[in-house]
Amino acid sequence: MIEVYNNFISVIVPCLNNEKTIERCIKTLLKQDYPSNSFEIILVDTGSSDKTISIIQKYPVKLFKEKTKNPYIARNVGALHAKGQILAFTDANCEIDKSWISNINSIMNTGADVSQGPGFLTNQKSLLPKAESKRLFMDGNDFWGDAKNLAIKKGVFYKVNGFFEYYTGCDSILLNQLKSLNYNIKYNKNQLVYRVFPEKLNILIKKSWKYGKGDIVVDYFRDDLKRFRMVRRMTITLNKRLLIKLMKSKKYEDLLMDIYSYLIWEIRYFSYFLNYHSTLKEINELKSNHKNIFYEKIDFIG
User: Fold this and answer.
1) Distance CA 126, CA 137 (A)
2) Domain architecture of the chain: domains with CATH
């Protein structure tokens, strides 16, 4: 019989003006089927001006405040205050499966250093969230760093200096970095969170524009990806690709989803082109000031 060892796990949630979703997130974390004395919940608020903080304060969780509106800085702050051997990251707009922590613990007990769960799931039924979920599909053959459903040994996280602190794309940077260092990274299909996606097209378009800048950040740290050439090729074949997509769509809903996906990806690609030089400048300035904030604690982590 395999012995079950309950690691102490620190759940870290960055938040900013999440009054509509934060309560559901906290409640589902508090209802985990994992022993309550074997995990903690840490929330790091980055300047909410709505009711987010007052909602958080109703529950038995730890709350820290960070003045910079940056989710990766918030995650690093949470990691600095974490007591657990394992750090589990999710987002304030997520509903957490009751066995989420248990499934993280199980895969970590197999020797994994990192466990990445699916980040595309949602319980929403309206078209735009369903289309966004479909577009972000991942599985064991194709997955990337997604901090809304990511767990990592604290010792490993500290040794690589946590998340780089640009405001987008840094979870993918972290996973690529860990892969290059040959850490044991596993995709955990049973590690489930359900995201609440925006239901307004303009918000999704803004997010796609931001993700285009995130692609630049990833390319900065992974110049072997040659993303710029891919982006140029994709935009040149714009009309052909859209026509093929429309011809393959069999249902009206599928047709709308394909048009949406195409639109969102094109915005992301154009964002890459138009923001390339300014984003590189921002990254270089940030990198020159980037310090290892975990160095004092590395000696104390196994």
Assistant:
1) 17
2) 9-197 (3.90.550.10), 201-288 (no CATH)
pLDDT per position as a tens digit, 167-221: 999 999 999 999 999 999 999 999 999 999 999 999 999 999 999 999 888 888 8
11-28 pLDDT, tens per residue? 999 999 999 999 999 999
Q: What's the pTM value of the predicted model, to 2 decimals? A: 0.90
